[in-house]
Amino acid sequence: MEVIKLTCINCPLGCALEVRYIDEEYVVTGNRCIRGKKYALAEISNPTRILTTTIRVKNSPYMLSVKSNGGIAKDKIFECIQILKEIEVQAPISMNEIIVANILDSGIDIVATKSIGGDELYG
């Protein structure tokens, strides 16, 4: 019986999780709460990650920090980054403004994590 070992990332406790396939179902041990169990089951079936990166701002030396507003399939992260490398936005931008809607038809948007105005960027 294969044991999959994971560390839960839902809180600072970092529970050491073990997942086993027993009697046609996955059994999770080591979790101190239900979120740990949900994390482990999601991680072995469809691992996702929140994507954080920066994109260019037109006519500015500054970059805009952005993130996904939900988990993106781990195997699609690199493809998303390639798309975002080509994006350049025009200030002003508001925090939580959608920069790329429904990236890769995932149902997940890429949003700004801060507001930037035009004045401080262009002198």
UniProtKB/TrEMBL annotation:
Entries under PANTHER family matching the protein: DUF1667 DOMAIN-CONTAINING PROTEIN (PTHR39450:SF1), MOLYBDOPTERIN OXIDOREDUCTASE, 4FE-4S CLUSTER-BINDING SUBUNIT (PTHR39450)
Superkingdom, taxonomy of origin: Bacteria
Protein name: DUF1667 domain-containing protein
Lineage: Bacteria, Bacillati, Bacillota, Erysipelotrichia, Erysipelotrichales
InterPro entries (UniProt xref): CPE0013-like_sf, DUF1667
